[in-house]
From TrEMBL:
Keywords: NADP, Oxidoreductase
Residues the record marks as site: Lowers pKa of active site Tyr: 76
PROSITE patterns for the chain: ALDOKETO_REDUCTASE_1 (PS00798), ALDOKETO_REDUCTASE_3 (PS00063)
PANTHER family, sorted: 2,5-DIKETO-D-GLUCONIC ACID REDUCTASE, NADP-DEPENDENT OXIDOREDUCTASE DOMAIN-CONTAINING PROTEIN
Domain of life: Bacteria
Protein name: 2,5-diketo-D-gluconate reductase A
Reaction catalysis annotation: hydroxyacetone + NADP(+) = methylglyoxal + NADPH + H(+)
Binding site for substrate: 109
GO molecular function: oxidoreductase activity, acting on the CH-OH group of donors, NAD or NADP as acceptor
């Protein structure tokens, strides 16, 4: 089994560089998917209340036979549960639904700037971290101005900022902004829904190495040095997505990958997204 490297966060805790995402995994089969992913070698589960599969995530974790202390569990506070009271209730519900005593990481799912409650929500996460309900706290889909306001008003830097990153949306400025603040970038939708699978910079590496386009893109993420969250309910693809440590992209190939950046999102713009 491949050994997944860990990244050290600014708070001293570590997280696996490759995690398993639970977004769009149907709740009915999610327990088996999670159990299979953990048995395949994943050690980070990235969930969220909004995904509606937290109970199944916990069931799969327990069924896997992997000790709880060996698995990094993430969840998120959704947009309609911002504010100190609602955020605390969200975290406590997630703890119950997953069936764990502590979350390894909890994120604010989106900043929802029109609500103007993300600082208050952040203060709630800080308090729950200090109480021991959460080990590390972070954010998701936060822009640079959102990060700076959090830090200026609370003095607390997020450990992680989970953002959309894939070949067609590489976000070098946002990744650099995270790094400058000591924040780990974690990429969601790292394969970009397969939109770059046939692009020459990806296909050429796949032909040279005998790897799949998905493996090439995941290796690209790995060499960029941030964390990332592939997702598949297919057991074979789960294993393939971890099989990226026996080849590498050359410097020239990494440069060619930059040409694929179109600034094209698969998800919403964090500066305006407010779905409840």
């Amino acid at each position: 089994m491949n050994s997944i490297p860990n990244l050290t966060m600014a708070d001293g805790h570590t997280l696996p560089q490759i995690g398993f995402g639970l977004w769009q995994v149907e709740s009915g089969g999610a327990a088996d998917v999670v159990r299979g992913a953990l048995q395949a070698g994943y050690r980070l589960l990235d969930g969220a209340y909004k995904y509606m599969n937290e109970e199944a995530m916990g069931e799969g974790l327990r069924a896997s036979g992997i000790p709880r202390d060996d698995v990094f569990v993430t969840t998120k506070v959704w947009n309609n549960e911002h504010g100190k009271t609602a955020a605390r209730a969200s975290v406590e519900r997630s703890l119950r639904q997953i069936g764990v005593e502590q979350l390894n990481l909890c994120l604010i799912h989106w900043p929802v700037p029109t609500q103007d409650l993300y600082v208050e929500t952040w203060e709630a996460l800080v308090a729950m971290r200090d109480e021991g309900l959460i080990a590390s706290i972070g954010v998701s889909n936060f822009n640079e101005d959102h990060l700076d306001r959090l830090i200026a008003e609370t003095g607390e830097n997020p450990a992680v900022n989970q953002i959309e990153v894939h070949p067609q949306l590489q976000q070098p400025q946002m990744r650099a902004a995270n790094a400058q603040r000591g924040i780990v970038t974690q990429a969601w939708t790292p394969l970009g829904n397969g939109a770059s699978f046939e692009a020459p910079p990806v296909a050429d590496v796949a032909n040279r190495t005998g790897k799949s386009p998905a493996q090439v893109i995941l290796r690209w993420h790995f060499q960029l040095g941030h964390a990332f969250l592939p997702r598949s309910s297919n057991p074979e693809r789960q294993i393939q997505n971890l099989d990226i440590f026996d080849f590498e992209l050359t410097d020239a190939e990494m440069q060619k990958m930059k040409t694929l950046d179109l600034g094209m999102r698969t998800g919403p713009d964090p500066s305006v997204f407010k779905m409840m």
